[in-house]
Fold:
Amino acid sequence: MRVLLDMNRSKLVDEDIPLFQSLTKDLFPTTQITPVEYPGLKANIRVMTEKLGLLWNNPRDTSKENAWHLSVEQFYETHNVRHGIMILGPAMAGKTSTIYTLAKVMGEMNPEKKKFTVIKMNPKSITAP
Structure:
């Protein structure tokens, strides 16, 4: 169940997540999934957003968890299980900030590596072979 969630949830659009949760609940009716906690990740994301001069909360968002923080956490989960990642979304949605914030947070959380490199590639510039 955990693998199903980790491998698929981040690839779904927001409208499809309740349907996916309903389907997995039908497949595994007695299974209870406890949320995964990553030690220090949330606190480090908050500290890094302040260091980078980013806004932690949208003033119009009154929910306890904000969507941008969750997208950074989902990007972290996806990074742990995939080799190549594409982040898609409309302009000014926070894609670049998500990538660089997570790279800096991972550098802070792994002092032996100290630096994570972000490599951007244009898929049109790579030939099939």
